[in-house]
Amino acid sequence: MKTKNILKTLILFLFCIAKSNAQEVLTIESAIKIALENNFEIRIAKNTSKISETNVTLGNAGMLPTATASVVDNNSIQNSSQTRQDGTSTSLNNAKNNSLTYGVSLGWTIFDGMKMFARLDQLKELEKLGDTELKRTILSKISQVNSAYYDLVQQQQQLAALDTTIVISTQRLDLAKNRFSIGKASKLEVLNAQVDLNSDQVALLRQKEAYANAKILLNQYLARDSKVDFKVMDVVTVDEKLILADLLALAQKQNPVLEAQIINKRIAELQLKQVKADRYPTVQLTSGYNFSESQSSLGFTTEASSKGLNYGFNASLNIFDGFNQHRNEKIAKLDIENTQIAIEQQNNILNTQVSTAFQTYLTNLELIGLEEDNEEIAKQNLSITLDKFKIGTITTIEFRTAQLNYVNAKVRYSNAQYQAKLSEIALKELAGNINF
After folding, report:
1. Most exposed of 37, 105, 256, 378 (fewest Cβ within 10 Å)?
2. Which H or E run includes 78?
3. Nearest to 101 by CA among 304, 312, 313, 314
4. pLDDT tens-digit map of 316-364
5. CA–CA separation, 407 and 157 (whole Å)
6. Residue 378 in contact with residue 267, Cβ under 8 Å?
7. How confident is the model at residue 386 (pLDDT cuts 50, 70, 90)?
8. Which of 47, 207, 245, 67 shows the shortest CA–CA distance to 134?
9. How far apart are CA 149 and CA 422, in angstroms?
């Protein structure tokens, strides 16, 4: 029987090891890679960027000729009568008439006040705007993945802290039961130990819930099944070498929101060029080859046909349009002025965001050091308190206080690391400098 029990235990142990090894260990690099491939918003932004790229063509700018093929077939049945100049007349009921025309026409605008060139440049700027929007979306989503990942690391660390306190509380309960059994402790001490253990188990269950929900959220950001199980790394590494001046300089060059405002100004300037082009004449070349045929049951000509080439040009110039040209140019100039104001506003907002985020970052770095020291002190205090509790020189309340102080210190240290990491991520996002 004893051998069977040992065998069952060994099989169960090996099963647990196999299950643990099968669980994916997700690194932050792997999470970012998955997000770049799968995240829905990033995929939509990529397609939107491709649309802007596809729109940059000579034809879309109006530089290429257009060719059109057409066919027109008209038929009629009518009661007709005709009176000629010599006074004779003729009539026919249910007279059939039909005409058929088909051919190819060609049109090409060869001059429109340089509007087509401004339009092409504007399409190129819209392509850049699409790329900038894609960059903004990627930065935002990668920042989101980073935050969710390190939140999961924090939840995992807190789970480990609560596992530790369960072990300690169980030891305390066992010790209280032993002391009660030999008459060195009252039943009250056993009950207090049991209540505290139950409280720790409740806290552990709540933490497991938060940990599971954090996993589901990260899976959502990675656009994969919420049931995919995985573990994350246990360490939060904070970049402690960020410099405010460098971040501000990078933000001026790389922040996608600011880049978009600058591109919008260039687009507005090119729009003004297109509006001004309406002051100049428009010249178009036209050409075509057509065939026509008609038949009539009544009249001098019962059948006629023609085919051949036609060509020519047309030119038009806006002389007066009720001052709409002047109005349109004034509006376009105001649009340019608004985009310049938007750039200045975004610069101001960006500098404020970077400066305040950097101050939070410095504070969180200091808190890491303080909370690390607090955790070490609380750990030493718990070790001493546990030894004293075992020999019965301190009360259960003092022991519980030391135990909770240690758990809280570990949680605060973990949270300090997490908050510092969030500050780092926020700064790098503003600077457009998150590595992906």
Report:
1. 37
2. strand 66-83
3. 304
4. 999 999 999 999 999 999 999 999 999 999 999 999 999 999 999 999 9
5. 11
6. no
7. confident
8. 47
9. 11
- Is the pLDDT at 85 greater than 90? The verdict is no
Strand ranges (DSSP E) for 206-302?
230-232, 282-296
Q: How many CB atoms lie within 10 A of CB 37?
A: 11
Closest CA to 259 of 339, 336, 337: 339
The domain limits of the chain are 24-56+112-280+321-430, 67-110+282-316
Q: How far apart are CA 214 and CA 75, in angstroms?
A: 73
- What integer pLDDT is reported at residue 302 of this predicted model? 66
**CA–CA separation, 88 vs 62, rounded Å?**
57
Of 135 and 94, the one with more pLDDT: 135
Task: Let me know how long the chain is.
Answer: 436
Integer Cα distance of 84 and 298 in angstroms: 12
Return d(Cα 142, Cα 32) in angstroms, integer.
6
Cβ proximity of 311 and 287 under 8 Å: yes
Q: Rounded distance, CA 263 to CA 429, Å?
A: 20
Residue 86 reports pLDDT greater than 60: yes
Q: Does residue 234 sit in helix, strand or coil?
A: coil
Q: Are 111 and 283 in contact (CB under 8 A)?
A: yes
Does pLDDT of 126 surpass 70?
yes
- State the virtual CA torsion across 86, 91, 96, 100 in degrees, nearest 10: 20
Specify the CATH number for 24-56+112-280+321-430; select among 3.40.50.720, 1.20.1600.10, 2.60.40.150, 2.130.10.10.
Answer: 1.20.1600.10
**Least confident residue range of 53-62, 106-115, 224-233, 303-312:** 303-312
Question: What percent of the chain has a predicted confidence (pLDDT) above 90?
Answer: 71
pLDDT surpasses 70 at 13: no
The order of strands in the sheet holding 303-316 is 66-83, 89-111, 282-296, 303-316
For the whole prediction, is pTM greater than 0.85?
A: no
Q: How would you classify the pairing of strands 282-296 and 89-111? A: antiparallel
What separation, in Å, do the N-terminal and C-terminal C-alpha atoms of the chain show? 58
- According to DSSP H, which parts of 306-395 are helical? 324-390
Position 299 scores a pLDDT of 58
CB 91 within 8 A of CB 81: yes
Q: Which residue has the tokens 């907002």?
A: 349
